[in-house]
Structures are given as structure tokens and as C-alpha cells.
């Protein structure tokens, strides 16, 4: 399907010649009961509220052309309601209560909140699952991941359409020249392999400067790496299914084994002693500065460290004629942490989309936005202005135009990214670090450990009441245990506090929902 670039240009030409009414055309839409909302030219019209991160969404040089292109391609007029990201959550809450001013599509950030669940139970949103059974009408959206969609489900109804994010994003990475310098020739596969690498990176002078100034693993008070390490031991992702029941991972023997291992690398100095007090905003800097050699987090983070080496001409310690590089391994012990699979979601409101035809118009628009042509337009901009096609038919960015000035800035806020997170054709021309990132995703994706409780937590009244508070109890106790401030008895006392403050009720409620779920 290498024709996409030419097709996008053809769309542009057609859009410029079309006598389409754009911009405010949606305001002329019919909203009579039983009729779909249409613009003056008879095309469906949808309204959507989403955040703007720059304040210039679809308002830059070339944006008029982008608007004409996506409206021509989707056959839909769009009335955008942009709200500043910094105040979006507040505006979102107000909008939920303002039925007279409700958009048809309401974009939500991050996870489903208690107020969304409450509104869903009161019938504020359409159940989208029955519509998405129509694979012919929605060839993209009908391919949604049903496990991820469980987090969008309230009382058996799929009220949200998730905005996809890579599931296999987390993993292990390390500095290749350091490994070579200390005699490691193969990427680590087991937990013991990782320990040996961290030990050598700390005590065998991997940078060759004769000083005791390196440590194995970069850590800050951001505890994401600990969550990933835990999965290597088989304890699961926040919750785990054991003997037909959902169990919080901190109650498992595998978790305790992982805790002891993490305490060991702390006691042996393989991570910095003050890690729990280091600003999480500096995460990645220790690897960039040559202070640490291993990195555990998202693989795109490891890619950016590698790109830093290239852009700053950081030389390999074993071959100064080459630039330092990162090896993106991904899983250890054939396991890694899965992401939730989404980052935000779309609600189709009954106050805005009054009829089934309105819902279909919304889903048609969102589905078409997942086509390669629209992914290219939203993520790469305009051919000739923002990118060109190489002789191999790949996208090559022409310049680093700041996001706030890009012609298509903001358009990606209307894309669910189902089934593809990036355009399949034409592909983006990738540098070596980016190619390694996507290769790691491919390895991680099928084995990433998911959270079996994710689909029930959104509907959990107990989780809405105490979830955040009791989660902090375990997080704090884990950190204190690793740093030697708690012993086994101290951690068990914290786990008992977790139960007493609502954890016991949460376990009971989630398992009631789990046992009643006929789709699991």
C-alpha cells in the first residue's frame, strides 16, 4: 500500500476544490429527536472535546489544509472543543454535569474515574460493544483488544473506547560497550544474569577510568523499575490469579522473593544509596552521564538514552571510533510488565449523540481516523511541508518543526490508534535506536504480564473509596524494606494495615466481580 503518500496529496487537492463547509459547519447541524446531526451540506457532523497541550491545535500554518483533508477523507464535519491540558480534568468534571452543552464525543485522560463510573451507571454514555460487532462498518475499531476494553466496562457495558498504547513497552536495557568492557558477550536472560551484570558494572570499572564511580542500575524515587523487576519472579502485575481467585501481588511468595533480591542489590551498592530521594524527573540522566549502565523502564526511554549518546558524540569505552549504544533486551526470565494498553479513552454521550445514527457517525469518524492515511496526516503532517517519501517509499521528516507550530498539531487527539499505533504504510524511516525500540516491543508484546483485575477496578466502589491510599501503604513499605528500614515483620505489619484499611473489602469485591464475569 505504498500509494498512501500520493493518496494524501490527492486528498489535499480534492479537499481544496471541494465546496465543503468547514470549521463552524457543525453548528448548523440538525439535532431533532430521531434524526442524525448533519451539517448544511448533508454530511454527518460530530462534536468532540479533547485537551490541547499547546493552545495552537489545528490553528497553525497549514492547519486549514489538514482540516479539509481529514473532513474530506472521513466525510465528517467536526466541531472541536479544545480545553487546556492543565485544567482539563476540572473542565471534564463540569462537562459531565452539563447535559445542555455535552459534546457527542468526550475525550478522557488516563484511567476511568469514579465520577465517570457513576455517570455511566446513570445512563450517560452509549454501550459501544454492540455497535463494534459490525466489522464491515468499523474495520479498525472492531479489532479492539477485549482484555484492554475490560477497563472501559461498567456493569457489563463498554462505555469507553480506549486510546491504545503499546502493551509491550516495558523492559530491560543496558549500555553495550560497558558490557563488552567487563567481558559480557550475551544479553542477560535470567535474573542471575542481570545480577552479574549489575555487579560488574559497579565493581569492575566498566568505563575504564580507574575510579570507583559507577553503579549497575539507574534508580530514582520513580518506582516503575521495581514493578517490572517483580514480574521476572512471577508474582504478576498488581494482581494475580491463583487457584481461581484474584490475589494482590504483595501477598504472594514470589513478591517476597523479588523484595529480597531488590534489597540485595541495594545492600551491595548496585544501585545508588539515595535512590528513594532522587528526583524522578532526572530518571535517565545517570545513564546519559555515564554513572549507571542498566536501565529498566519503557523501551522508548532506552532509545532516547542511545540517541543522546549519538547526538552528544559519547564514545564507546572499548572503541573510541564508535558511538556508545544501548542494547534493548526487553524481557528477563521471559517476563516483563504490561502497560494497561491504553492512555485515555473516548466516551460517546447520550446527551450529545442523541440517536443511534449519531453514534454511528461518531464511530465512523473515529474508525476512519485509524486508517494509515489519517495516522500519517496526524503524526507526520503534510507531505512536502513536514515530510517527504524516500525512494524506498518511507517517510522522512524534513525538519524538526516544534509541536506547537505543526500543521496537524492536535489531530492525534481524535485517534483511538486501533488496531495500529503507527501507520503500517508508508513506514517512518527509522534510525537504529528507534528500530531497536520497535523490535523490543515485538518481543515483549506476546509475553507481557497483564493485570487480571484491571477490568474490575474501574467498577469497584471500594477501589474508588480507598484504592489510592492503601496502594501507597504497600509502595512505601516496599521502598522501606529495600532500604533496610523494615524487616520481614515490619512489612507484614504494613500488609496487615493494607487489609484493615479496606484491602480485605477490595479483595472480596473484586473476586465477586471476577467470579460473576462470564467473559473471563
UniProtKB/TrEMBL annotation:
Coiled coil: none annotated. The keyword Signal applies. InterPro entries: Bact_solute-bd_prot1. The keyword Signal applies. Residues 1-25 form the signal peptide. Keywords: Signal. Gene3D superfamilies: Periplasmic binding protein-like II. PANTHER family: ARABINOSE-BINDING PROTEIN-RELATED (PTHR43649), POLYGALACTURONAN_RHAMNOGALACTURONAN-BINDING PROTEIN YTCQ (PTHR43649:SF33). This is Extracellular solute-binding protein. It comes from Enterocloster alcoholdehydrogenati.
Amino acid at each position: 500500500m505504498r500509494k498512501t503518500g500520493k493518496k494524501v496529496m490527492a486528498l489535499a487537492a480534492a479537499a481544496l476544490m471541494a465546496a465543503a463547509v468547514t470549521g463552524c459547519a457543525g453548528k448548523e447541524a440538525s439535532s431533532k429527536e430521531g434524526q442524525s446531526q448533519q451539517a448544511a451540506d448533508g454530511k454527518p457532523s460530530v462534536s468532540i472535546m479533547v485537551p490541547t497541550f499547546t493552545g495552537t491545535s489545528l490553528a497553525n500554518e497549514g492547519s486549514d489544509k489538514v482540516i479539509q483533508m481529514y473532513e474530506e477523507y472521513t466525510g465528517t464535519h467536526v466541531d472541536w472543543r479544545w480545553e487546556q491540558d492543565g485544567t482539563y480534568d476540572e473542565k471534564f468534571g463540569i462537562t459531565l454535569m452539563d447535559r445542555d452543552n455535552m459534546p457527542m464525543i468526550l475525550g478522557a485522560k488516563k484511567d476511568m474515574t469514579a465520577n465517570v463510573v457513576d455517570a455511566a451507571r446513570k445512563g450517560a454514555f452509549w454501550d459501544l460493544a454492540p455497535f463494534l460487532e459490525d466489522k464491515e462498518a468499523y474495520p479498525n475499531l472492531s479489532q479492539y483488544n477485549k482484555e484492554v476494553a475490560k477497563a472501559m466496562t461498567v456493569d457489563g457495558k463498554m462505555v469507553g473506547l480506549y486510546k491504545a498504547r503499546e502493551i509491550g513497552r516495558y523492559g530491560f536495557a543496558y549500555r553495550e560497550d560497558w558490557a563488552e568492557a567487563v567481558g559480557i558477550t550475551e544479553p542477560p536472560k535470567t535474573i542471575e544474569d542481570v545480577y552479574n551484570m549489575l555487579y560488574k558494572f559497579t565493581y569492575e570499572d566498566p568505563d575504564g577510568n580507574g575510579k570507583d564511580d559507577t553503579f549497575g542500575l539507574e534508580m530514582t524515587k520513580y518506582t516503575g523499575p521495581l514493578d517490572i523487576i517483580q514480574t521476572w519472579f512471577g508474582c504478576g502485575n498488581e494482581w494475580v490469579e491463583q487457584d481461581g481467585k484474584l490475589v494482590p501481588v504483595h501477598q504472594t511468595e514470589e513478591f517476597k522473593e523479588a523484595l529480597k533480591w531488590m534489597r540485595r542489590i541495594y545492600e551491595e551498592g548496585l544501585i545508588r544509596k539515595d535512590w528513594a530521594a532522587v528526583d524522578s524527573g532526572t530518571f535517565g540522566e545517570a545513564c546519559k552521564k555515564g554513572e549507571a549502565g542498566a536501565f529498566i523502564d519503557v523501551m522508548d526511554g532506552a532509545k532516547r538514552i542511545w540517541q543522546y549518546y549519538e547526538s552528544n558524540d559519547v564514545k564507546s569505552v572499548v572503541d573510541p571510533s564508535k558511538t556508545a549504544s544501548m542494547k534493548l533486551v526487553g524481557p528477563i526470565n521471559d517476563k516483563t510488565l504490561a502497560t494497561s494498553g491504553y492512555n485515555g479513552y473516548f466516551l460517546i454521550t447520550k446527551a450529545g449523540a442523541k440517536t443511534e445514527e449519531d453514534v454511528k457517525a461518531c464511530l465512523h469518524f473515529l474508525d476512519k481516523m485509524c486508517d494509515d492515511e489519517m495516522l500519517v496526516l496526524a503524526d507526520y503532517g503534510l507531505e512536502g511541508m513536514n515530510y517527504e517519501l524516500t525512494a524506498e517509499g518511507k517517510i522522512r521528516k524534513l525538519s524538526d518543526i516544534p509541536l506547537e507550530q505543526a500543521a496537524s498539531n492536535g489531530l492525534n487527539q481524535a485517534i483511538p490508534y486501533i488496531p495500529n499505533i503507527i501507520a503500517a504504510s508508508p513506514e517512518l524511516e527509522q534510525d537504529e535506536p528507534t528500530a531497536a525500540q520497535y523490535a523490543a516491543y515485538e518481543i515483549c508484546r506476546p509475553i507481557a504480564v497483564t493485570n487480571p483485575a484491571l477490568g474490575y477496578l474501574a467498577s469497584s466502589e471500594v477501589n474508588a473509596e480507598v484504592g489510592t491510599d492503601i496502594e501507597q501503604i504497600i509502595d512505601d513499605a516496599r521502598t522501606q524494606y529495600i532500604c533496610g528500614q523494615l524487616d520481614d515483620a515490619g512489612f507484614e505489619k504494613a500488609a496487615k494495615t493494607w487489609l484493615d484499611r479496606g484491602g480485605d473489602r477490595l479483595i472480596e469485591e473484586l473476586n465477586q466481580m471476577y467470579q460473576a464475569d462470564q467473559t473471563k
